[in-house]
Design a protein that fits this description.
The protein is an alpha/beta fold. The chain has helices spanning about 1-15, 15-25, 70-85, 100-105, 140-145, 150-165, 170-180, 190-230, 230-260, 265-270, 275-285, 290-300; strands spanning about 30, 45-50, 55-60, 90-95, 110-115, 115-120, 120-125.
Length: about 300
């Protein structure tokens, strides 16, 4: 399910953030464990090993309580048995309900049958104060579903917080997740309007950087061609100017996205041809970190 996948992605990307939210204290280091459990495989939404506490944190995100089969309490007991069988550690289990409903309000945080009793914890997002979520970028998307008397104002608050994320790849991920989860409460047109500025920001910044570099390239090429005073000089000047302008724009974009490049990567960047720089421009937004850039460079050299 789309909403489940968003929450799973957030947990996988920001396990420390989610563990700290649930456990209230700093819980590093943590390790994301395999979600496929033994016997007939079932997949938990998020399983995190809290190394300092020597404990397993199991999170389950649920949208439609009434349509769960088997019922949620039985599923949670099943997960606990499998997790304990596999890791032999204490297991803290949290069911995070995404959407208000009569069934969600009535859900009891326990499984009880005959002499079997198993408790767990429930977090109903619409009862959570937004301030508890808006302090952490990993939780911004969940904040769109939090407690409020002014839903539209809350959506704007989330969008404002997203604007403050400096890391482009993280901002892109959080914007996408926030829009999807906000769809449980808001109309698509409203979500698009509120987040439109942020959705376009990355593209606008990207285009401004490239255009600035191209302007520099044209200026350099014109100056070199003018100084040469010959047709071939002008052509050579334009080509070299284009290369330098493209290099300047790409270098500026990478610096904004990753910070200063390691010397060896910066040297390889400056050795790229015009054609290779053009190829790099096409994939810039897809590069998540310096390791991705390094892998791209190695691929081009092979």
């Amino acid at each position: 399910m789309e909403y489940d996948n968003v929450c799973k992605l957030l947990c996988k990307t920001f396990p420390v953030h989610f563990a700290s939210w649930i456990m209230k204290d700093i819980v590093t280091p943590v390790t994301v464990l395999e979600k496929e459990l033994s016997i007939e495989p079932i997949r938990a939404d998020s399983v995190i090993f809290l190394q300092a506490q020597d404990q397993i944190l199991h999170l389950e995100f649920q949208l439609n309580v009434e349509n769960s089969e088997p019922p949620i309490p039985l599923r949670i007991l099943d997960y606990w048995v499998r997790l304990y069988r596999q890791y032999r550690l204490p297991v803290k289990q949290i069911v995070i309900l995404l959407k208000d409903s009569a069934a969600a309000r009535k859900l009891q945080p326990e499984f009880r049958f005959d002499r079997t009793f198993h408790p767990f914890q429930i977090i109903r997002l619409w009862e959570v104060e937004p301030e508890l979520l808006l302090h952490d970028i990993a939780l911004f998307p969940l904040a769109t579903l939090s407690k409020t008397r002014d839903p539209l104002g809350l959506l704007h608050r989330v969008a404002d917080q997203v604007k403050k994320i400096d890391n482009i790849s993280q901002r892109k991920l959080i914007v996408s997740c926030a829009q999807i989860l906000a769809g449980l409460r808001f109309e698509a047109e409203l979500i698009h309007r509120v987040f439109k500025e942020e959705i376009m920001r990355e593209s606008v910044i990207y285009q401004e950087i490239l255009q600035e570099g191209l302007r520099e390239g044209r200026q350099i090429g014109w100056q070199k061609g003018w100084q040469e005073g010959r047709q071939e000089g002008r052509q050579e000047g334009r080509q070299e100017g284009r290369q330098e302008g493209q290099l300047a724009s790409v270098s500026r974009f990478l610096h904004r996205k990753f910070g200063a490049l390691p010397p060896e990567l910066d040297k390889q960047l400056h050795n790229l041809s015009v054609a290779q720089l053009d190829e790099l421009v096409d994939v810039l937004l897809d590069l998540k970190d310096c390791n991705d850039f390094k892998a791209w460079l190695q691929k081009k050299q092979s």
